[in-house]
Structure formats: C-alpha cells, structure tokens
Amino acid sequence: MTTLMTRLLAAAGLCLGLGWSAGAAATNYDFSTFMTDGQGYENATFGDLTMSSEAGNLKYVDSYGGGLFAGTGGDSDITFTFAHAVSNISIRAGDGAGDADAFGITAYAFGSNALLGTWYSPTFGTNPNNQWYTFSIPAANVGRIVFDPCNSANCPGHLGGFGGVVVTDLNVTAVPEPETYGMLLAGLGVMGAAARRRRNAA
Q1: For the chain, where are the E strands, in sequence order?
Q2: Residue 136 — φ and ψ, nearest 5°?
Q3: Per-residue model confidence as pLDDT tens digits over 23-59
Q4: pTM of the complete model
Q5: What CA–CA distance (Å, rounded) separates 131 from 139?
Q6: How far apart are CA 109 and CA 39, in angstroms?
Q7: What φ, ψ does residue 119 adopt, rounded to 5°?
Q8: How many CB atoms lie within 10 A of CB 32?
Q9: Integer Cα distance of 136 and 89 in angstroms
Q10: What angle do the packed helices 178-201 and 3-23 form, to 10 degrees?
Q11: Which of 2, 24, 166, 196: CA 20 to 30 A from 141?
Q12: What is the bridge-based pairing of β-strands 78-94 and 142-148?
C-alpha cells in the first residue's frame, strides 16, 4: 500500500470518527434541572424537543419523584417531537407510590411519521427499591415518540383511567444527517487531489 493511500485511509478514519461523534451527540433531558414545580409546559420547546399532552395540561410537579405529569393522576399520553432524527431513546419514569406501574413508548419515523413500533416496560414499583424504571427502545431515525403512562400497570392506558406515572428523564442520541457524510467525502476528495498534485510535482 502506498504512503499516499495509507495517509488517505488514516485521514478518512479520523474524519469519519470526528464526524460521527459530532453528529451523534447524546442529549439528556433531566426535567428537574430546568423546570419549575406547578409550571405548565404544554407545547413548550427546549432546543430540538417539543412537548405536548393528550389532556392539554402538561406540567412539571415536584411530587411523585419530580417529573412531567398530565391528565388526572398522570394518566395522559405525552408526545415528544424532535426537530432532527434521534435514536438510542430511553425514558425514566415512576411515581414512588409503592403501587404497580408500567409505561409504554410508541415511536414514529422522522420525516414520514411511519409507525416504528410500540414497546412496554416490565411492571415495577411494588418493591421500595424499584419505584422508577429506565426503559430503552430499539428504534432508530425517530422523529416523535408518544409516552403512555398506562393505568397502574394496565397497558395500554387511557385518559381518565388514573394510576399513571411521571417522566423524570428523557435520553436521546441525534442521528447524523446525510450532509455530514457528504461534506466528509468531499473533503477527502480535495485531500486526495492535493496529495496527487504534490506527488506529481515532486
């Protein structure tokens, strides 16, 4: 393998690595760090995230462990919409009440809004040591998720069924946009052309 080819491959690996790490940034929304008890957040936007609820009364509460809450007793679905495609989604939820809980996450594709799937957490909450649960879903290229708080572990839940949970944290990873790779490849092409000129001039 020529020295030129070795250098180009090394540069490609470095650029793709840097491009991936820059484009695939993980974001943690710990709602307790930027929300206020009793404050309404219906249709609120924080960076790339917009939130709304089925009941139209989304708010943050310090009770139940502190988290997003909607409906009566936290039984309303909450929709999280992203400005860019995301993956590696996980949600932490619970209520600290000592009763049986569970929740579901339905994911929709970014751009097309096609249904990607629905997943439900296992039942938790009856043991004092597991009042909250962090649940991850295997969906990628997601543009919107709907959080179903269920009704005291009866899933799917429905508005008016009571027995819901609060969302304390949401974690996502941004999916790198195709333009990122296009720019990297164009840059590598320029590097290759410059190296060839330099070699021909020698």
Answers
A1: 26-30, 44-46, 49-53, 59-61, 67-69, 78-94, 104-109, 115-120, 132-137, 142-148, 166-174
A2: -110, 145
A3: 578 999 999 999 999 999 999 999 999 999 999 999 9
A4: 0.79
A5: 25
A6: 30
A7: -130, 145
A8: 14
A9: 6
A10: 160
A11: 166
A12: antiparallel
Amino acid at residue number 85: A
CB 88 within 8 A of CB 178: no
Condensed to tens digits (0 to 9), the pLDDT of residues 138-180 reads 999 999 999 999 999 999 999 999 889 999 999 999 988 665 4
- Measure the CA angle with vertex 85, ends 111 and 124; round to 5°: 115
Q: How far apart are CA 90 and CA 19, in angstroms?
A: 24
On whether the CB atoms of residues 131 and 117 are closer than 8 A, the answer is no
Dig out the tokens for 199 from the structure: 């070699």
